[in-house]
Amino acid sequence: MVLPLRHGRTTAGRGPRILTALLVTGAALLTVWLLSLHRSLAGDIALPWWGLGIAYFLATVAGVHVTVRNQAFTFTLSEVPLVLGLAGSSPSALLAGGLIGTAVSLTLYRRQQPLKIVFNLAVFAIEADVAMFVLNSLLAGHAVASTIGWLAILAAAVSASTVGQLLTALIVAVSTDARRGREVAGILRFVVPASVLNTLLGLTGVHVVGHDAQAAALLVIPVAALAIAYRGYLFERHRHAQVRRLYDTSGALHRSHGGDASITTLLSQAREMFNAEVAEVVLLPTKQGDVRRCVLGPVESAGLVTETVASSDPAVALATARTPVLLDPADHAGLLAARGCRNGMAISLTGEHGTAGALIVANRRDAVSAFGRDDLELLEAFAGPASVSLDNGRLEAELEYRASHDPLTGLANRALLAERMQAALDSGRQRTCTVLLLDVDDFKTVNDTLGHPAGDQLLIGIAERLTSCLRPADLAARLGGDEFAVMLASSSDTDGAVAVAERILDALRAPFHLSGCDVTIRGSIGIVGDNPSIVTVDDLLSSADLAMYRAKAQGKNRCVVFQPVMQVEVMARHQLRVDLERAVSDEAFQVHYQPIIDLDTGRITAAEALVRWSHPDRGSISPDEFIPLAEETGLIVPLGRIVLEQACRQLAVWQRTDPRMQLSVNLSGRQLQHPGLVDEVASTFARHGINACYVTLEVTERVMVDDQLALDALRRLRGLGVKIAVDDFGTGYSSLSILRDLPIDSLKIAKPFVDRLARSDDDRALAATIVGLASSLRLDTVAEGIERPDQADIMRDAGCRGGQGFLFSRAIPAEEFLERILLPPAGAPVISLAG
Ligand code: C2E
Ligand code: MG
Ligand code: MG
Question: Whole-model pTM?
Answer without folding.
Answer: 0.47
